[in-house]
Design a protein that fits this description.
Blueprint: H1 2-28, H2 51-66, E1 71-76, E2 79-84, H3 87-96, H4 108-111, H5 120-130, H6 136-139, H7 143-157, E3 166-167, H8 169-185, H9 198-215, H10 222-225, H11 229-261, H12 276-279, H13 289-320, H14 322-336, H15 345-349, H16 352-364, E4 370-374, E5 379-381, E6 386-388, E7 393-397, H17 398-402, H18 405-408, H19 422-425, H20 446-463, E8 464-467, E9 474-476, E10 480-482, E11 487-492
Parallel strand pairs: 2-7
Antiparallel strand pairs: 1-2, 3-11, 4-7, 5-6, 8-11, 9-10
Helix pairs in contact: 7-8, 7-20, 8-13, 9-11, 11-13, 13-16, 13-20, 14-16
Bound molecules: protoporphyrin IX containing FE (HEM).
Residues 115-116, 127, 180, 298-299, 302-303, 306-307, 310, 367-368, 371, 435-437, 441, 443-445, 448-449 line the site of protoporphyrin IX containing FE.
Subcellular location: Endoplasmic reticulum membrane; Microsome membrane
Membrane topology: Peripheral membrane protein
InterPro entries: Cyt_P450, Cyt_P450_CS, Cyt_P450_E_grp-IV, Cyt_P450_sf, Cytochrome_P450_Monoox
């Protein structure tokens, strides 16, 4: 009896604390607009419906925010979120609030404390160690792998040449998986020829469950999720992917130890590729095998689908805008003539027009459409003139900012690669364009991603003429997808 009374008292104290705190937060952000909500669940109904509807809901929110200095607040149950649609406030949040929002906690069983979701204290120390590994000079050594896999892609696409339209994402994803696996782990997977392995199936299953959970509010509390069959399915498949990476880490650890001890007269082949994992041994921090697995899994997950999606959107856009495709092709011709050789660092540096096309593609189809951060201290947003209280979450709407007329002008929704000409970019706010996020917790692989994207698109455009129709409907999962896929037709040049 005493225990029951004590528990009831505790529950009442918690509710009281919550109500007082929620009132304080609501008052601090009183000048922000808010969509009408329901008692207890607040605006959680915004996340009911399919992923196409959810994107529409978010776009409606952005429109309302633009009528009020670019910010709006929503309550998701007991949690206050401020959604940000202007570059000034996005900059403040992304520079000052480095902790990821709790929504990313679903990734924890998979990625542990890997860089992508590491708590901020650990992240600061680990990011410093990982940063030099993604330096231009290092990632440029991976151009051989990128070139080789791009050639395989071009060969694989020949089965679709001069035929009906098809979804190109599947082909691109296999290619980027081969590149990212080999450069991150030093393991050749040959996904382009062997796309159906237990590891790849497990990875796909985990991604599907995570995506579903992210946008189905009733699956979010662990106590409910654990009652569903998805919980066991997720665990089994995560275990399988962990065992795979653990094996690779173990093998690399042995190689490292043998090299360090000079054992067995260890001779490294002169043409050995130094993958990211190889470069993480013997650093200022001695990472444990578990930490290495978490970092490598984070890198392969963060780096693959993002890069593949940008390439696929860009190919569709080139298929729609034939004049832009012609410009890209002419630029390639001026660099390579008729040659189908792999692109070198110097070649890539000359692809200025292609770079503008890729940027414009990332602007219109921002594959990471929202970035959510935890507000760990009261943070003043100068754009909307409000202080977000500690304990709230901030959602930076990169997709909305990239399509905002206030930022990009009245033709914001049109495809115009030349808006990225240096002379047209000088007066733009530094956080107006942030496909790789902004601030010190931005994408560590952005330069590497750019090398991959330019090389692959260069190979495809030199080999094929592309045709496509405008993408009409989009949906939001962890990333941004077209409902009907990335449909293109290719014709041999
Ligand atoms: C076009 C390609 C890419 C895009 C659009 C992209 C986008 C992003 C974005 C927006 C973030 C920040 C997410 C957030 O704060 O919630 C991020 C982080 C990250 N990305 Fe990328 N990315 C790309 C390619 C890559 C590549 C090629 C790699 C590595 C091979 C990579 C590895 C990472 C990692 C490890 C993080 C976490 C960084 C940290 O928290 O310190 N990304 N990426």
């Amino acid at each position: 009896m005493i225990t029951v009374v004590a528990l009831l008292c505790l529950a009442c104290v918690y509710c009281l604390y919550w109500v007082v705190n929620a009132r304080r937060m609501d008052k601090m952000t009183a000048s922000l607009p808010a969509p009408p909500g329901l008692p207890i669940i607040g605006n959680a109904t915004l996340f009911i419906g399919d992923t196409e509807q959810m994107l529409k809901n978010l776009e409606d929110l952005a429109d309302r925010a633009y009528q009020h200095k670019g910010c709006i607040k929503v309550w998701l149950g007991p949690k206050l979120y401020v959604a940000i649609g202007n570059p000034e406030d996005a900059q403040v949040v992304l520079e000052n609030c480095l902790d990821k929002d709790v929504v990313y906690r679903f990734l924890r069983p998979w990625l542990g404390h890997g860089l992508f979701i590491a708590p901020v204290g650990l992240w600061k120390v680990h990011r410093k160690v990982l940063l030099p590994v993604f330096h231009n000079k290092i990632v440029e050594e991976y151009l051989g792998v990128i070139g080789e896999q791009s050639t395989v892609l071009v060969e694989r696409l020949s089965e679709k040449a001069d035929k009906e339209e098809f979804d190109v994402l599947k082909y691109i994803t296999a290619c980027t998986l081969d590149i990212v696996f080999e450069t991150a782990m030093g393991e050749r997977m040959d996904v382009q020829h062997t796309p159906d392995t237990p590891y790849l199936r497990a990875r796909h299953t985990v991604m599907t469950i995570l995506n579903m959970r992210l946008f189905k509010v009733w699956l979010q509390p662990d106590c409910l999720f654990n009652l569903t069959p998805y919980a066991k399915q997720q665990k089994d498949n995560i275990d399988l992917t962990h065992r795979f990476t653990d094996e690779v880490v173990k093998k690399k650890r042995l190689e490292y130890e043998r090299k360090k001890n000079g054992a067995d007269k260890f001779i490294e082949p002169t043409d050995k590729l130094h993958a990211v994992l190889d470069l993480l041994f013997g650093r200022e921090i001695e990472f444990t095998d578990e930490q290495l697995r978490e970092h490598i899994d984070s890198i392969t997950i963060a780096g693959n689908d993002t890069t593949a999606l940008v390439i696929a959107y860009t190919l569709v856009l080139l298929g729609v805008y034939q004049d832009a495709q012609e410009n890209v092709y002419r630029e390639q011709e001026s660099i390579f003539g008729n040659s189908m050789r792999e692109a070198t660092r110097e070649d890539l540096q000359k692809m200025n027009y292609l770079e503008r096309v890729i940027k414009e593609s990332m602007r219109l189809y921002t594959v990471v459409p929202i970035i959510a951060r935890n507000i760990d201290k009261d943070t003043y947003l100068p754009g909307c003139g409000v202080t977000i209280p500690a304990g709230a979450g901030a959602v930076v709407g990169a997709f909305a900012i990239h399509r905002s007329e206030a930022v990009w002008g009245s033709n914001a929704k049109e495809f115009d690669p030349d808006r990225f000409l240096p002379e047209r970019s000088v007066n733009r706010h530094p956080a107006a364009f942030m496909p790789f996020s902004y601030g010190s917790r931005n994408c560590i692989g952005r330069n590497f991603g750019m090398l991959i994207m330019k090389s692959i698109i260069s190979s495809v455009v030199r080999s094929y003429k592309i045709h496509a129709h405008q993408i009409d409907r989009l949906k939001i999962e962890m990333l941004l997808f077209p409902i009907n896929g990335h449909l293109i037709k290719v014709q041999k040049r």
